[in-house]
Design a protein that fits this description.
The protein has six helices and ten strands; from the N terminus they run H-E-H-E-E-E-E-E-E-E-H-H-H-H-E-E. The chain is of the alpha+beta class. The longest helix is centred in the C-terminal third of the chain and has 20 residues, at 195-214. 38% of the residues are buried.
C-alpha cells in the first residue's frame, strides 16, 4: 500500500497541472472501493484545478465548486499520460486537461481498493478525514502529544503508530524503519515507553518520512511516480524486508514477526 511519502510524491508530481481546466473525463470502471460518481463526466468539465493538497494518505484536488478526495488504496497510482497513449489494463479513470499537450491524469488500480470521491463541502469535514490524527511532519505531532496518547495503550507500539487516529501516514514500512532508528522493538507495549524513548521515536518518524520523500518513496511492489519512475528509498531500508540478513549495526540477523496481521522486522540486539 502506498504510504505517506508515496502519496506526497504523487501530489507533488501532479502539481504542474494546477491552474489548467478539465476538458474531458473518462470513467471506464466506476467500481472502486466506493462507486465513482459518473456525473463527474459533466461536473468537472471546464473547471480549473485550483490546488492539490494532502491529508494523511488522501490527495485533495480542489476545484471551484468542490474537491476530489483520492485514495490510492492497496495498489492504485496516478500518472500523467499523453492524450493518445495506449490504454493499459486497470486504467479506470482519465481526467484530461486543457494544457498544450492535453495531458491526462490517469488512475490505475488493479485491486480497486482506492477511491475517487466528490464533495462540495469542506473536505476536511468529510467522514473519512475529520477524525484523522496529526500530520507527522507538523509541530502538532510532538513528544508531549504522543507520550500522552500512549499512556493507557497496551497494544504494541508499532500498531499504535500505524493507527491513523494517532498519527497519519505511518504505514508498515516506515513504522518498522522508525522503530529501528529509535532502538525500540515493534512488539513493546506502548504504555511502557519512557519519555526519552518517545522523544527518539517522534524524531525517527519525522526523519524517516522526510528522507523517504526526498528519495522518491519506496517501490516495493508496484509504486511508480506520476512519470512512471520508481522511488529508491527501498535501497536504504535498514530492517524492512530484510529477514535473516545481517543488521547494519551489529550484524545479527534481522527478525520477522507478525503484528496486527502485518509482517514486522527488527533487530533483537539493537532494539529493546
Amino acid at each position: 500500500m502506498p504510504e505517506l511519502p508515496e502519496v506526497e510524491i504523487t501530489r507533488l508530481g501532479l502539481a504542474p497541472l494546477i491552474n489548467y481546466k478539465v476538458s474531458k473525463v473518462v470513467i471506464r470502471n466506476s467500481s472502486l472501493r466506493w462507486p465513482v460518481d459518473k456525473s463527474l463526466r459533466k461536473i468537472l468539465i471546464g473547471m480549473r484545478l485550483i490546488s492539490l493538497k494532502r491529508r494523511g494518505k488522501y490527495i485533495l484536488a480542489e476545484f471551484p465548486k468542490g474537491t476530489l478526495i483520492i485514495h490510492l488504496g492497496m495498489s492504485g497510482h496516478l500518472c500523467i499520460v499523453p492524450k493518445n497513449r495506449k490504454i493499459k489494463k486497470h486504467d479506470h479513470i482519465d481526467i484530461e486537461f486543457s494544457n498544450k499537450d492535453h495531458q491526462i491524469i490517469c488512475y490505475n488500480d488493479p485491486r480497486r481498493f482506492g477511491c475517487i470521491l466528490w464533495t462540495e463541502e469542506n473536505p476536511l469535514n468529510h467522514k473519512l478525514i475529520k477524525n484523522l490524527g496529526p500530520e507527522p511532519l507538523t509541530d502538532n505531532f510532538n513528544v508531549s502529544y504522543l507520550f500522552k496518547k500512549l499512556r493507557k495503550k497496551t497494544a504494541s507500539i508499532k500498531n499504535i503508530i500505524m493507527n491513523s487516529h494517532v498519527v497519519v501516514g505511518v504505514g508498515n514500512i516506515y513504522a518498522s524503519e522508525a522503530l529501528f532508528h529509535s532502538n525500540i522493538r515493534p512488539q513493546r507495549e506502548a504504555y511502557k515507553l519512557s519519555k526519552d524513548e518517545v522523544n527518539n521515536l517522534v524524531a525517527a518518524i519525522k526523519k524517516t518520512i522526510e528522507n523517504a520523500i526526498l528519495k522518491g518513496g519506496s517501490s516495493i511492489n508496484n509504486f511508480l511516480d506520476v512519470n512512471g519512475k520508481n522511488g529508491y528509498f527501498q535501497n536504504e531500508h535498514q530492517v524492512y524486508g530484510r529477514k535473516d540478513k545481517p543488521c547494519i549495526v551489529c550484524e545479527n540477523p534481522i527478525q520477522q514477526i507478525i503484528l496486527g496481521q502485518r509482517s514486522s522486522f527488527y533487530c533483537k540486539n539493537c532494539q529493546k
